[in-house]
Design goal:
Elements (H helix, E strand, L loop, with lengths): L3 H30 L6 H14 L1 H20 L8 H23 L4 H31 L6 H24 L2 H11 L3 H34 L3
Length: about 220
């Protein structure tokens, strides 16, 4: 039993590595996709690889939700947190994970659109939950007494908010990519697509920054 909590911490770190490492892979593939020196088939292959690699971070993100509640429960960081709440967190996390993989398996169908719509609602709910948990704890000292932990919860909510903005900024890519494939590479098709990707990158970098800060808070526990 003494190894149970450290094992949870280890699994938490593995999820962080999968999330950030996979996201960096997505970022690099996206950078190469932007290069007009590649042929269209090469760029489309890069895009397919990007979508597959992106499943890693999305999987880690979904599992981070129940893992965070499990760590709070097992470590005694949230006094009074009932076990049914932890079980509910796992149901939510695994349900979210199913939505991610089911949408990938049925991409470009109404079923995938439904999955992603439900996932969007879930992200909004979790944003409110983590921001509220962190904000309340900072203001009152409860239910998360350590300030570093309250800030971590608040910033984790910020990651959800930034990810929502990524999806919002990325919406025009579908029609723009279709125009690129159908009409070929030209300033008329490339410039709008690049502008959309540039706008999305700002929120991606925000997620990276928040991930670094939250991991630092959890490791150093500075206050």
């Amino acid at each position: 039993m003494d190894a149970f909590y450290p094992t949870l911490v280890y699994l938490h770190l593995l999820l962080f590595v999968l999330w950030l490492g996979g996201d960096l892979g997505v970022f690099v593939l996206g950078q190469h996709f932007r290069r007009r020196s590649y042929s269209m088939p090469e760029r489309l292959t890069l895009l397919k690889l990007l979508v597959i690699v992106d499943l890693g971070p999305r999987t880690a993100w979904a599992l981070m939700v129940p893992m965070s509640l499990t760590l709070l429960f097992a470590g005694g960081w949230w006094p009074g947190l009932p076990f049914p709440a932890v079980a509910a967190a796992w149901a939510i996390g695994l349900g979210w994970l199913w939505l991610v993989w089911d949408a990938h398996a049925h991409d470009m169908t109404p079923r995938a659109a439904r999955d992603r719509r439900i996932e969007g609602w879930l992200r909004w709910a979790l944003t409110v939950f983590y921001v509220g948990l962190g904000g309340l704890s900072l203001a009152t000292g409860e239910p998360l007494a350590p300030q570093w932990l309250a800030w971590k919860a608040l910033l984790f909510g910020g990651i959800f908010a930034a990810a929502i903005m990524i999806d919002h900024a990325f919406k025009p890519v579908g029609p723009q990519l279709m125009a690129l494939v159908q009409q070929g590479s030209s300033d008329a098709t490339e410039v709008p697509l690049r502008a959309t990707m540039d706008g999305t990158r700002r929120w991606v970098i925000t997620v990276y920054a928040l991930l670094f800060v939250t991991s630092w808070l959890g490791s150093v526990k500075p206050f």
